[in-house]
C-alpha cells in the first residue's frame, strides 16, 4: 500500500492553504466531471477495487513531492481516467 | 449563478474557445450521452443535490442534537451510521460512520492520507485543502502545526487524536459544546457548528458567533 497515493507522514509539501468561503466546485467542468463520475458508477463495468486501482495509478510514483503536486487536481485526473487509453470504463 | 448544464455553457458552439480540460470533459459527456450511459438532466440533478442539499448543515444538525439530547449523543457514539440515519442522512460515502467526541482532554482530527475519503451525507464534498498533499501528509505527522495553519492553537496538554479514514469508515467529529449556550434550541446550536469543527481543523463558534 505504499504507492504514490500514500502520503501519510511524507515531508516537503509545504503549508496547508485553506480557502475561506470555498465553493463546492471551482469551475463548470469540475461539476460535470463529478456528476459523470457518480453517474457512471451505476452502469458500472468495474468494481470499487478497480476504481481505486485506476485512481491510484493516475498519481505519479512518489519520487518527490513536486511530482505529485504537478500531477494536477483530483478532478482533472478523474477526467483523464475516463478518457485515457486502457480505461476499463 | 454558475451554469451547470452542458447545453447552457456561455461558449456553446465555439469549441475553439474551450480550454483543453473543458474540451475534454465536454467530449466525454457527449460520448457517454450518445452511448446512452448518462442523461445530462440527471447530471444536473446530481450537481444540484451536492451544491445545495448535501453539505455541512446536515452534520451541524447531528452535532446540535447530540449536544441537546444526551440519549441521542449516546446512540451517536455507539452506532453513528444508525443515529445519523435517524435524521435522514444516509447514502454514498456515509455507509459506515463513526462519531468521535472532543473533550477537555482530547481533540480529534480527521484525515484521509490515501485519497480524499470524507463523510458526504453529513459534510458534503470535501474542500480542496482536505484532498491536498500538504494536509494529507502532515495531519498524521505534525497535527499541531497543521491546526495552527487553520488558526487553531491548542494548549500543549491537550492530546490530539488523528483518525485516518479507511476505504469504508468515515468519521465525524463532535466538537465541544460552547459555554454560555445552556437552554438553547437545537436550531440555535446548529448555527454554531462549522464544517471545520466537524473535521477537527476548527472549534465550534462561541455563543455570539465568534470563532
Mean pLDDT of chain A: 76
Low-confidence spans of chain B: 1-6
**Residue share in helix of chain A:** 40-55%
**What low-confidence regions of chain A span 5 or more consecutive residues with pLDDT below 50?**
84-89
Report, as a whole number of angstroms, the end-to-end distance of chain B: 29 Å
Give me the Rg of chain B, rounded: 20 Å
User: How many H/I helical runs of chain B?
Assistant: 11
Largest sheet of chain A: none
* Number of DSSP E strands of chain A: 0
User: Could you say which structural class the secondary elements and strand pairing of chain B correspond to?
Assistant: alpha/beta
What form of chain B results from the Cα inertia axes?
globular
Overall 3D form of chain A:
flat
Strand line-up across the major sheet of chain B: 1-4
Question: What share of residues are in beta strands of chain A?
Answer: under 5%
Helix content of chain B: 40-55%
Oligomer: heterodimer
Specify Rg of chain A, calculated over alpha carbons. Answer: 15 Å
Describe the model.
The complex is a heterodimer of chains A (89) and B (211). With 89 residues, chain A is an all-alpha fold. In chain A, 42% of the residues lie in helices and 0% in strands. Chain A has helices spanning 28-39, 48-57, 65-69, 74-83. In chain A, helix 1 crosses helix 4 (74-83). Chain A is flat. By secondary structure, chain B is α/β, with parallel strands linked by helices. Chain B is built from eleven helices and four strands, in the order H-H-H-H-H-E-E-H-H-H-H-E-E-H-H. Chain B has a two-stranded parallel sheet with strand order 1-4. A two-stranded parallel sheet of chain B has the order 2-3. At the A-B interface, helix 1, helix 2, helix 3 and helix 4 of A face helix 1, helix 2, helix 7 and helix 8 of B.
Amino acid at each position: 500500500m505504499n504507492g504514490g497515493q500514500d502520503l501519510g507522514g511524507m515531508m516537503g509539501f509545504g503549508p496547508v492553504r485553506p480557502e475561506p468561503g470555498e465553493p463546492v466546485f471551482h469551475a463548470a467542468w469540475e461539476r460535470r466531471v463529478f456528476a459523470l463520475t457518480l453517474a457512471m458508477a451505476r452502469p458500472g463495468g468495474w468494481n470499487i477495487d478497480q476504481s481505486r486501482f485506476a485512481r491510484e495509478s493516475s498519481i505519479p510514483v512518489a519520487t518527490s513531492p513536486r511530482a505529485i503536486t504537478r500531477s494536477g487536481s483530483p478532478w482533472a485526473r478523474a477526467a483523464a481516467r475516463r478518457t485515457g487509453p486502457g480505461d476499463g470504463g | 449563478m454558475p451554469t451547470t448544464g452542458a447545453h447552457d455553457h456561455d461558449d456553446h458552439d465555439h469549441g475553439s474557445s474551450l480550454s483543453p480540460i473543458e474540451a475534454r470533459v465536454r467530449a466525454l459527456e457527449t460520448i457517454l450521452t450518445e452511448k446512452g450511459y448518462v442523461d445530462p438532466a440527471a447530471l444536473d440533478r446530481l450537481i444540484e443535490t451536492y451544491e445545495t442539499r448535501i453539505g455541512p448543515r446536515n452534520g451541524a444538525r447531528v452535532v446540535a442534537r447530540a449536544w441537546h439530547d444526551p440519549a441521542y449523543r449516546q446512540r451517536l457514539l455507539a452506532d453513528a451510521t444508525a443515529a445519523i440515519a435517524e435524521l435522514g442522512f444516509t447514502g454514498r460515502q456515509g455507509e459506515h460512520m463513526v462519531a468521535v467526541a472532543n473533550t477537555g482532554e482530547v481533540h480529534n482530527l480527521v484525515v484521509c492520507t490515501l485519497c480524499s475519503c470524507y463523510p458526504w451525507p453529513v459534510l458534503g464534498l470535501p474542500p480542496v485543502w482536505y484532498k491536498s498533499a500538504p494536509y494529507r501528509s502532515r495531519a498524521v505527522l505534525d497535527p499541531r502545526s497543521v491546526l495552527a495553519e487553520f488558526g487553531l492553537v491548542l494548549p500543549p496538554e491537550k492530546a490530539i487524536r488523528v483518525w485516518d479514514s479507511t476505504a469504508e469508515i468515515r468519521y465525524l467529529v463532535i466538537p465541544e459544546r460552547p459555554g454560555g449556550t445552556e437552554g438553547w434550541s437545537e436550531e440555535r446550536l446548529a448555527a454554531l457548528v462549522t464544517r471545520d469543527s466537524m473535521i477537527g481543523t476548527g472549534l465550534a463558534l462561541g455563543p455570539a458567533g465568534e470563532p
